Amino acid sequence: MLKGFRDFILRGNVVDLAVGVVIGAAFGGVVTQFTNSFINPLIKAITGGGARVGGTFTLGGAVFDYGAFVSSVINFLLVAAVIYFLVVTPVNRLMERFKRADKPAVVEPSNEEKLLAEIRDAIRERPMER
What are φ and ψ of residue 105, in 5° steps? Predict the structure, then answer.
């Protein structure tokens, strides 16, 4: 019963879903705050920012806020890196260990098979009669 539960938990779909929901929500807030506290001021400093992150440009009366887009991309990359390096990689290693442990042991040939192999080898060594 416990082996079945372990197999269910370590199945790729369940682990991926748990990673996406729990870790994404937990680290999303941390990374958003990191972006707001460190990345946004850095983008403002590089682009000569003002009240908005980075800057904007206007094209045909429409205002494009590229600073917010850059912040969102950095935020996404940080969340993805944290999930990959702290969750996905360790889970993959753990699943690899379980797969190695589940492999059946190599079965040694029975006494009959050993005897038949000896007979076969003896016949091969005999010179052919013509």
Answer: -70, 150
Q: Backbone phi, then psi, for 65, in 5-degree steps?
A: -100, 85
Q: Is residue 125 part of a domain?
A: no
129 falls within a domain? no
CA angle 58, 63, 69 (to 5 degrees): 110
CA distance linking residue 30 with residue 69, whole number of Å: 18
Whichever domain contains 40, its CATH number is: 1.10.1200.120
Q: Which domain holds residue 26?
A: 2-99
- Per residue in 4-16, pLDDT (tens digit) is 777 766 666 766 7
Q: Quick check: 77 pLDDT over 70?
A: yes
pLDDT digit string, tens, across residues 109-130? 888 998 999 999 898 888 776 6
- Residue 113 inside a domain? The answer is no
Taking the CA atoms of residue 108, residue 98, residue 2 and residue 7 in that order, the dihedral angle to the nearest 10 degrees is: -110
Q: Confirm whether 88 is domain-assigned.
A: yes
pLDDT at 15: 66
Taking only Cα atoms into account, the Rg of the chain, rounded to an integer number of angstroms, comes to: 31
Residue whose token pair is 């917010």 = 68
